[in-house]
Sequence to fold (271 residues):
Amino acid sequence: MWGVLCAFQRPFRDYPGVEYRLGDIPLPPDWREQSEWTFARLMYPPVPYRRFGRGYGGYGFRGSGRGIWTEGNSIWTQDYPRADRHFSLALRRLTRIQVRSVEQPVNLDEGDVYDWPWLYAVQPGHWQLTDAQAKSMREFLLRGGFFMADDFWGQEEWDIFMASMHKVFPEREAVELENRDPIFHTVYDLDNRYQVASEGSVQRGRSWKCEGCPDRWRGIFDDHGRLMVAITFQSDVGDSWEWADAPYYPEKYAALGIRIGVNYVVYAMTH
Fold:
């Protein structure tokens, strides 16, 4: 069955990003190998005509990051592909999951989201899903898919995120996750979580990107109590993967970020 599924999956493609050009991050030697799990990164259209003053200008992105979103060089490519490949390598080492060494960018308009049951999005405080994309996301999640939304900050970005999520689930709200929730105990016990700092925040001697923005761990559940959407609001887990090998990036953030990712993947595969 798995061989049949692999045969119909959309081929891997590399995209230019807002931080890395094509070829900056070399493909690993085994990038063509199939696997049972792949880091699927959500491609999405950004909010039009919005100034990204805190984002693009402040984080050293090359260019404006306002390219054609289906061709890369858009905000969905933040940390890409370095974070994706670092985390995939960590997941290989820390679990027995057969992990593909390269990521898979996924466009909800192309109909193959069901081939990649774990989906990640960075900076969804800048997204704007169309009605058709929201319908695809809803179907994906209700069929058993899992979505991790990461690295967005402040009330304005939260409202933008939820505007699209309300298209996906007009009848559901995001709730605060509790320490006893299974997702925090699938592999590692993560009762003592803290804000995961971005690389830029570390350089500034802090953990936050905006004042008065503490870490929040939120989610959206289905009718059976399964967590469908895990939201690492006001933490930058993606940067903890991207910079895990940088000597100046604190180990405490890299360690927590990787453990969060491992728990979320294992939860998604077992619930």
User: Anything to note?
Assistant: The two ends are 20 Å apart (CA to CA). Confidence is low (pLDDT under 50) at residues 1-7, 53-64. The chain has seven helices and seven strands.
